[in-house]
Amino acid sequence: MYSLTGLELKNPTILAAGVLGTTGASLRRVALEGGAGAVVSKSIGPEPKKGHPNPSMIKLDCGFLNAMGLPNPSYSEFKGELEIARTAAAVPVVASIFGGSAEEFAEVAEGLLPGKPDAFELNVSCPHAEGYGAAVGSNPCLVEAITARVKEVSDLPVWVKLTPNVSDITAIGKAAEAGGADAVVAINTVKGMAIDIESGYPILGNRSGGLSGPAVKPVAVKCVYDLYAALEVPVIGVGGVSTWEDAVEMIMAGASAVQVGSAVYERLDVFSEISAGIETFLGRKGYGDVKDIIGLAHERV
Amino acid sequence: MRPLNVNIEGIIEESPSTRTFVFDHCFEAAEPGQFVMVWARGVDEVPMGLSSRNSITVQKVGEATSKLFELKIGDSFGLRGPYGHGFTLPSPGEKVLIVAGGVGVAPLAPYAEACQASGAEVRTILGARSASELVFKERFSEAGLLDITTDDGTEGTKGFVTMILEGLDASEYGKIAVCGPEPMMAAVFNVLKGKGEVERAEFSLHRYFKCAIGVCGACCLDPYGLRVCKDGPVFSGEQLLDSEFGKYTRDASGRRVKI
Ligand SMILES: Cc1cc2nc3c(=O)[nH]c(=O)nc-3n(C[C@H](O)[C@H](O)[C@H](O)COP(=O)(O)OP(=O)(O)OC[C@H]3O[C@@H](n4cnc5c(N)ncnc54)[C@H](O)[C@@H]3O)c2cc1C
Ligand SMILES: Cc1cc2nc3c(=O)[nH]c(=O)nc-3n(C[C@H](O)[C@H](O)[C@H](O)COP(=O)(O)O)c2cc1C
Ligand code: FES
Q: Which atom in ligand 2 lies closest to the alpha carbon of residue A70?
């Protein structure tokens, strides 16, 4: 067991938001078959949303590009899925939520409470959904107000997921902390685009989207490194983690746990593999615990 | 992968609502039952079974398929794939039963041909609403025995594919492959279940696809979270027992919708 913001994780690997998180059944599968220590749902909003037209995700040589457009069935429909995940996953289930204002975030959080999530993750960082996500998450005042408002409506731990598409991610991290965040999660996808040169059309239905996978790991490591130095609350590292070495690197930058998204493309049990790899590494190097290497890079000067 | 650019080399009018688009790229290693994502640029990208190594067979139902119907020989569209798992091929001498309904013929015609080529004995039950909607009659009859049913009786037996299926000894067939509208597949599933033969039958499912590569979770089945795009689209009857199959599906937002 590994504790993080009051939750007892099976191990420090967590399923990232928006990946295999649309139904209770798939969240459960990632926990049971994939070996994730905790799972985060798809970001859920106030109204059902179809998302952007396809193509909504493509694999590139260096990573993945997506513009799903926050498709979700709305909180009133999703609370049943949360319950399904909660009853059988045997690991903490975190509900990712989004809205256009502090009030909408609070409405969604309250609406999901009957599904008994273990924590909330606030998506203030989606780079390609108009009026939501990063549109909200690049404004420190809004991030603080949203965090505080969600803390008001429930006693659950609140994680705030940050966008790297800002000039100073620590300013947003500090705003989340000031609003009462129990942890920050970094990073969401990095703005990106691909164009089909035969036709001249941008490939994504939304024209542009967000980059994830191996290409963004150095960006994520730097964001986590800076946030660790700037904040008191734990930082959860996400972006390009697909092996235990990536996870250890993220932890040494300052992450208390890692999330894995795109890497489920290769295999679902990437979580078991990473957590086993971390354990072996700790043993080989004579460390007692993951906690011994969190932010280690900051001490090496 | 980025979408490949393919050029249309031929367009075959299969029925009033169905056309085959033959293109200039050959998916040499594609298994019958695998699918591609077809990008009608500026509109949408939708899944289609490969009806041969270099064609798709499209029924016009909405925006993306209507856009494809506007294309002429020499025009191009985008293609990603082939993705997913196809139907299991038989061993030589094995008997194969194919049950095809509507545009479900698309992945099954190349399967019938592959089965015949591998020395299996093929029998197909082909169903459609009426005679004019029967697609790939010749391909199926050249691959083996063919029974036809139409809802309105304009050709073959009047009624559903299950009427023929009920009269067959399903235990004779080493492989049973099914594709068509879900209510039809669910009816076939139930008949085969009644005969105690459903576990090894294979069904090609349709769910709303977004990423098509097993990451986003849009296409997951209850209760085990199997991904239709990556773990399927072809599943064994055993995998579908006590599942949402035949009961409900989900729309693009993830809301449940009754079948
Ligand atoms: C694995 C698989 C193989 C398929 N093979 C064929 C085939 O060989 N020939 C054929 O004609 N059709 C096939 N289909 C169905 C085909 O994808 C839909 O008919 C097509 O998406 C309709 O698009 P539209 O924009 O014209 O219609 P719309 O008006 O957008 O939608 C009509 C219906 O099409 C379906 N649909 C729309 N978008 C998608 C999507 N992204 N993913 C899945 N379903 C969608 C939905 O059920 C929707 O209700 C297949 C579907 C799947 C999942
Ligand atoms: C298909 C897809 C959908 C995503 N949806 C969401 C989402 O709904 N909410 C969110 O906060 N992040 C979402 N993300 C971002 C991921 O949670 C993660 O931050 C990002 O992909 C980087 O991690 P990775 O490289 O491990 O994928 C999504 C990513 C992908 C690839
Ligand atoms: S369509 Fe994304 S997982 Fe199947």
A: 8
